[in-house]
Design goal:
Blueprint: E1 2-11, E2 14-24, E3 29-33, H1 40-47, E4 55-60, E5 63-64, H2 70-76, E6 78-81, H3 93-100, H4 109-119, H5 121-125, H6 136-148, E7 154-158, H7 166-181, E8 185-189, H8 193-199, E9 202-207, E10 210-216, H9 217-222, H10 224-230
Parallel strand pairs: 3-8, 3-9, 6-7, 7-8
Antiparallel strand pairs: 1-2, 1-4, 4-5, 9-10
Helix pairs in contact: 3-6
Length: 234
């Protein structure tokens, strides 16, 4: 479904991604692990068209995404839940969800909003509430729900557990699994390696713009280097 080949991305003269290659097959949950500054967010921003690679290719369902504008990437079936949520603070919950469907002209928007409310009942309770007054967990639910309103086939999730209490982290990851079971392929960027590897089928480790490790989720979880660097084990 997604094929990234020899991707090089720069911020000015800073070489942020140094020739990374990876793939995500339809129906998978694939996780991208790494410390702050490794290039995880840069990778997702490049996939969604917010950054242009200097070299390499990104192909989605057979077509290249290089040079494709972000709104056209959404139209092709990819949505991005950014780090920090980036909801519209002054709009209501419903208005935020409607913004997620801005590329659509079909009559199914209302039905899909109800589906989001089924996934996140708390959002239904707060449908008229101003989004900026929601709790952190509720804002994360809203950010994911807004992305789902575009009916993606591939969902890019950037640090969905950031800043959330442990009980909410579990709830968010259970929801990610449920979304995947409904047929949405997921590329998950996450610092909580244990949680990410518990739901993913495969993973890649990103270090200073390179991908030195990849494998099945269980294989990575058992890797001594991964356990030491990302799972807090000596």
């Amino acid at each position: 479904m997604l094929e990234v080949t020899d991707l090089h991305v720069y911020y000015g003269e800073i070489h942020a991604l140094k020739g990374i290659s990876f793939r995500v097959a339809q129906g998978e949950i694939v996780t991208l692990l790494g410390n702050n500054g490794a290039g995880k967010t840069t990778t997702l921003r490049t996939l969604s068209g917010l950054l242009a690679p200097r070299q390499g290719d990104v192909r989605f369902e057979g077509g290249s995404l290089v040079g494709v504008a972000p709104h056209e990437v959404v139209l092709k079936g990819i949505t991005h839940v950014p780090e920090g949520r980036r909801i519209f603070n002054r709009l209501s919950v419903v208005e935020n969800l409607e913004m997620g469907a801005y590329t659509r002209g079909d009559p199914g928007v209302g039905q899909d909003m109800e589906q989001v409310f089924t996934i996140f009942p708390r959002l239904k309770e707060r449908r008229s509430q101003v989004a900026g007054t929601l709790s952190g967990g509720e804002q994360q639910m809203l950010a994911i729900g807004r992305a789902l309103m575009a009916k993606p086939r591939l969902l890019l999730l950037d640090e969905p557990s950031m800043g959330l209490a442990p009980v909410l982290v579990e709830q968010i990851f259970e929801t990610v699994l449920a979304i995947n079971r409904q047929g949405v392929t997921i590329l998950l960027v996450e610092q909580n390696a244990a949680m990410a590897l518990s739901i993913a089928g495969r993973g890649y480790v990103l270090e200073t713009g390179r991908l030195p490790l990849e494998g099945g989720a269980r294989e990575l979880a058992d890797n001594p280097e991964v356990r030491r660097a990302y799972l807090g084990e000596a």
